[in-house]
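YHS domain-containing protein
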Amino acid sequence: MDMKVAKKKLGMKERYRALTRDLGWEPSYQSKDALFPYVKYEGIKVHDWDKWEDPFRLTMDAYWKYQAEKERKFYAIIDAHAQNNGHLNLTDARYLSALKIFLQAISPGEYAAHKGFSRAGREFPGVGTQVACQMQAIDEIRHAQTQIHAMSNYNRYYDGFHAFVDARDRIWYTSVARSFFDDAMSAGPFEFMIAIGFSFEYVLTNLLFVPFMSGAAYNGDMATVTFGFSAQSDEARHMTLGLECIKFMLEQDPDNLPIVQAWIDKWFWRGFRVLGLVSTMMDYMLPKRVMSWREAWEIYGVENGGALFRDLARYGIRPPKGWDDAEKAIDHMSHQFMLGLYQWSFGTSFHSWIPPEEDMDWLSAKYPTTFDKYYRPRWEHIKKLKAAGTPFKNFGLARLCQCCQLPSVFTEPDDPTMICHRETVYKGEKYQFCSDGCKDIFEHEPEKYIQAWLPMPALFREFGGDVPAWMDWVGLRDGSDNGDYDGSRDQKHFNEWRNLATSNR
């Protein structure tokens, strides 16, 4: 008598193989070149797409179960945060400026990455690559959604959160992150993988989602902490995928090495410039700080980045071209950018402030060779001007770098007393840059960057220099969203509500 035998279930590895390799087929009435028209023009040579390995081998059913569990916990926590007036548990409403920058600059970037991975998944021929890109595309749109949901609660009580979508596309400091993603999405699929998988995930998110989220916890913002650590568990997978893509290209053909190295040079510098925003958030906008920007860079930049490039050295990859200049800038960039944000605070959809004496002492301890020598005297001077009733405001407009779009506030790598300014002439037009790294990137692809949309030239071209009209266009409410934190509505409301919550009145 025959016995019934339970049908053997496929293991994780077999299910992944069925989902990827077994779905690949040879086209019969269209050529592969016609199906995947963008895969060759970057010059990357691939001889065997089956060599692409996804180290996590996630299948769709496992992915949805895993992510659904995280979503349930996340929404339970942000509901509790909203119902219990969690915004009053913050250390200080100054912390909200960091969240406003995050919402205006980073969350739309997550959405842009979702579109980019959807496109890359379509443009790569390998099925393993397509599945990996599809899952990362879903991750990225989830991140954008959860970040917006977590921070939307603050929009009920505080200024500056209401028009983050318009701010992302139209305000000068958010165009830094926008131009990064526009550059990546207008590149070919392999370069896009380096831009996001290496630069954004490896260089940026480690520094953003780990030390900054620890700072959010330290300042009482459990909603932000929850989305940060939820996203970071995905980012660890994304970093591994980005690294796998780099190794795949290098192992396929030795001719790929110079192309990959040039992309690593470019996207390291582009990612580092976006970190200018993050450095200021960490050093100046967290009322209670876990670590300085310099300390975070030592851990996540020098140690982790150094290990990465030691690993890639066996393929012939060297550290990025701008690495030494980046190291020289670490002790200066947060101070220089915060001074810029303060002097142009009429054009920011968040508040800035003169650091109180306690904060300046902390900065002095964390930056013993630079803060007291170069930056404390400037803040002391600005403080005297404010006390005299003549606060320092710069109503001129910042000159933006044609490549990274940051204002030119950074100094020469070897001389912190001199503004770094580079320029080049292309087709009779003069273009300005903030660094050698940005100038090099422009000169390699000038036709791409001469089309860049820069907010300051647009202000004159489209509004004739009419600043109030520009503020309407970007959704910036003058007198409530911008300016000094001292005396602002955010400060007044937070203090009043906190007093009500902690007293018997």
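thats it. The longest strand covers residues 415-419. Residues 245 and 458 are 38 Å apart (CA to CA). bye
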